[in-house]
Amino acid sequence: MTEARSLPRNAALVHAFLRRHEGPATAYRILDGLRSEGVSAPPTVYRALDRLIALGLAHRVESINAFVACVRPEHDDGNGFAICRDCGHVAEFAGGAMRRTLGEIAEAQNFELDHATVELSGRCSSCRQADGEADRG
Are residues 79 and 40 in the same domain? Predict the structure, then answer.
């Protein structure tokens, strides 16, 4: 895996933005956050995101059309995201069991699996707990 410090300037800026940003960010949110750094065009952000994704330093969360920094770069054989529908928090997960199960499903379909991304939609523990406290209050 490529070290973030050896990235081209724009990719390094986008990576740093994603790492410090609270939750997922759209390309236009990234652009707005980096205008003061001289990043002024959407293609610049998209090229940087493409590079980061290719290097395993960022992920696109398809269902919400947003991007997050990779928190588990050691897992390159598949990953997943648990996305809270209330607060928007995205938690990354990965694991061999998930990869094996998806591989078995693909094999049953006579399909060769290269990579898999799973997106779970629901409610995080903080939002569920907040609802529980509101019900008691």
Answer: no
Nearest CA among 102, 105, 63 for reference residue 79 = 102
Q: Please report, in tens digits, the pLDDT of each residue of the chain (137 residues total).
A: 455 568 999 999 999 999 999 889 999 999 999 999 999 999 999 999 999 999 989 999 999 999 999 886 665 556 789 999 999 999 988 777 888 889 999 999 999 988 788 999 999 999 999 887 655 55
The whole-angstrom separation of Cα 79 and Cα 41 is 30
Pull the structure tokens for residue 97: 């069991």
In a shared domain, residues 92 and 32: no
- Tell if the pTM clears 0.90, that is, is over it: no
Residues, the chain, total? 137
What is the count of structural domains for the chain? 2
Q: What is the CATH number of the domain that holds 113?
A: 3.30.1490.190
Q: Which domain holds residue 99?
A: 71-137
**CATH of residue 22:** 1.10.10.10
